[in-house]
Specification:
The complex is a heterodimer of chains A (96) and B (233). Chain A is of the alpha+beta class and 96 residues long. Chain A has helices at 19-30, 54-69, 89-95; strands at 2-12, 43-51, 75-81. The chains are: A alpha+beta (96), B alpha/beta (233). Chain A binds chain B through residues 12, 16-17, 19-20, 22-23, 68-69, 71, 73-74, and chain B through 56-57, 60, 64, 92-93, 98-100, 102-107, 145, 147-149, 181.
Amino acid sequence: MSRHRLEIRVVPRAGILDPEGKAIHHALHSLGYVGASEVRVGKLIHVDLDADTESAALETGDLMCRRLLANPVTEDYTVGFAPEGAGAPHLAREGA
Amino acid sequence: MKVAVVTFPGSNCDYDLYKAVQLVGGEPSFRWHRGHELGDADVVMLPGGFSYGDYLRAGAIARFSPIMEDVVAFARRGGPVLGVCNGFQILCEAGLLPGALIRNRTLKFENRDVLVRVERADTLYTSDYRQGEILRIPIAHAEGNYRADEETLSRLEGEGRVVLRYVDREGRATDAANPNGSIRNIAGIMNERGNVMGIMPHPERRVEGILGSPDGKALFTSLARHFEPARAG
């Protein structure tokens, strides 16, 4: 059993209106970034998880998304591992 | 009519529902979300508010409250379940109603009276209204923008399960009359069986003239009449 830091990204599904992304898009245009054609805003979730293997950790993360972290009607998600040193500081302390 | 009003941490319309039920001669009682005691309730109501601070998504955490197991079982047995505002969001998250409610297109918390048209006057919840009647009742939400895939929408429309729709004074479901961007101006829907209804507007806040209008009252008298035909006023 080892600890894994999952990095889960939840974003509005393609074709689903993203009012927040739209508002940010407008603001970027006001700043002169006229090349910004679309903005989508989602969530980034780190979960520290004890699991036997990396694939078991990813599988659990996938299940977490389907059951709670993402709404399949409006959101898509990806599950991966957080880059070294990302997120919660307590793990960094443990490693030190 | 015995009504169980479920209180989640962050619910704030539970007393309004309680009072509205009392007003039409029903017997309301509160149920804390951690319990498993729906008892002999005839009807379950999920109130508006901000359960769990709307963390993750509105209704996403409340849906895992212990009492929701009982609410889902009650609904599956055909028991009437009404969700208002946050209650509607919870019903969608719990899978008792299709679709989802996302951020208002205005990005604002919309807190004002709106006009809604009664699309169906032959349901458990709307039998004391007239078909096509226009009600003035308030909304108070930031996530009331209803979304579902095309297939679900055609089913909802085809089976007459859109119960309330945002309209203008002439009863037209225009874009200008739509306060949150909800697809097809949808303000409230039912499940296939017609026992579960979710709506964004707050009828419980408009049950007496002194509250601005009595337009919401007939929803509660409709229900009460179903259970106690002689008593509902």
